[in-house]
Amino acid sequence: MEMEEVENASPHEAEKWFISPSFSPYLLEYSNGNQFGFASALHLLVDAFEMSFEAQFLEDFVSAESPGPDNLKSSMVIPPPTVRDRVLKELFDEGVQLIDSAYDEHKTPQAIKGAPLETLFAQFCLHSLWVGNCHIRAIAALWIEFVQEVRWCWEESQLLPRMPVNGSIDLSTCLINQKLHMLAVCIKKKREWNEDHRECMGSEDQIDYMTEEESAVGDDTSSMQAQNEDFSGKFTGEPRSFPTSRDLHYSDTAFTVSQDPVKDDLLNGEKSSDQTRRGSAGVIDSMMLLKSYQRMHAPYTQEAPLMTEDMYEERLQALEASNGSFNYFAQLERDILTSDMAAFKAANPDAIFEDFIRWHSPADWLEDPEVEKSKDNWPPRGHLSKRMSESDNLWRELWDRAHALAASEQKPLFDPNREGEKVIHYLETLRPHQLLAQMVCTAFLAAADTVNKTSYGELKQMETKMQQLYLTMAPALKPLEANRLSADSETIEDLKRQCVVFGHVENLLTVAASLHRKLVQAPRLAVEIFIDFYNFYIPRMGTGLEEDYSNKKEFDTKQIVWNNEREVVSSMFVPPTANQSWRKVFSMGNLLNGHEPMVREIIFSLHDGVSNNHYAAPNASVSEQEIDTYRMYICGTSNDLRVSLSVVSCD
């Protein structure tokens, strides 16, 4: 920035201060060769996506003996193993774990199928932008080693970093992120099973010393600990004492569960069925069975199986092929519903279908209005809803066929071993264009989320531009979500134009953040300067891939500095001390590790108009200038300089 005081003016005007920012040329024009921002790196990633259709396997881009494109092998060098190891070490840092709350905060916009910023695949995409100039060979080599590291985590039961281990899979994210989330859950369940198995093996020797009475108590205790078990006939979960989100017809009715069902039954003088009852989480207050004078017990149930987007599609295709007679979502819930019925029968041996409906779907049980609700009113008066009373009701059919099995005795709904191996197989056999398509979506989204975290103060224009950036990215990235991708030239051109838009927004954000940081104590001045630059820069923006040379004006707007802002502005122009001035005379160029470099390059450029020169640009629209460049290479120290080479060129 430059600051000046009015000269040759009235005394009142001479007291005014003006400030005129000086912006870098990189901010005034977008160029694909600019390697300092996300926009240029994203442009290179789009080029890699375009090349990904030239081979069917990622190994073809890496192996020298493979029949891959020869032009790639010669022009694109794979980063050395040290570079790749350093990237993987940072990605798989064991100390970085993504908690569920952080995952929810960074969920992707519904219109863009990427991965949340802090997740493993999003970080892989961001690292890939700066490895080996982001060409296809570097990406392929890094991905192969990335999958090998993921397989090692799976085989050694090591938690996958940067991925949540709980919660449902977010189907609005890209498929690779869904698969990694699935694998993280499988690893966690696998670790829990290993820990339970070791505990069981350690306590096996003590069983022989238990008395018959202790054994009976132990059997009852083991049934109450079923929620700590998982997939080998074991599971984890809370007692089903109230409706959950997976039950589509639940009401907001909640039940109070007593954790001592035997004692509760005996105190109420009820006939106990605990000899056959299994998997009970406790009695439900104020609810009794219809056909026997007993309290209703809430069972432990299995968790609903996790599914990724492609698993839903496969299940739908299988249903369509079999000409299923019921709704797809009903088919999806059938196994879960049967499991819940079996667990309810095991916890309530004397229960009937109406009892299950009262617990599982209270909205389908209509109580008689004239009957006053009380514990002592038995049997409960009411009837099923119309849909549950139909003769061909699917729920009743499933109830009749369900056997009384506690959740710990049932076949698991979710097998982590099988699902984990499926995830590894998917990652290892992913086609190049499928990988690059998801990388492009995730990289655009992660880059936008990263720059959007920049602090730029209260600049409404910048906030609007960031919102517009997300809106323009969504339609440009939409074609990449299709299962059948092709090297469509129109799609590629749209992505490259999106890179240009990203570059312009990135330039605006750079200025906004710089002004906010330098003039944080003078917010009015920062806002006014940015508005001037915004109005100057907007006409230069565009989505064309060719640069527009028609508008090449320089930014020369000045802003008045108010009296209360002068101290802030003055602090930016501190005069050098005597020591600094002396060092500046003898030190030529930047210091390297505190020492002056032994070799320097000094470049003098002379700009002049071109007149009948064969170096002139053939395009008349280009500003015709001749640049005489004098390069002088010197060596030695500031006290002993000598010219080693001098070159003159006309560029």
TrEMBL record:
Family: Belongs to the Rab3-GAP catalytic subunit family.
Domain of life where this protein originates: Eukaryota
Pfam families xref list: Rab3-GTPase_cat
Main location: cytoplasm
Ranges of Polar residues composition bias in the record: 220-230
Domain Rab3GAP catalytic subunit conserved span(s) in chain numbering: 274-428
Gene Ontology terms, MF aspect: GTPase activator activity
Name of the protein this chain belongs to: Rab3 GTPase-activating protein catalytic subunit
GO cellular-component term (any): cytoplasm
Region ranges (Disordered): 213-247
Keywords recorded for this protein, A-Z: Cytoplasm, GTPase activation
Subcellular location: Cytoplasm
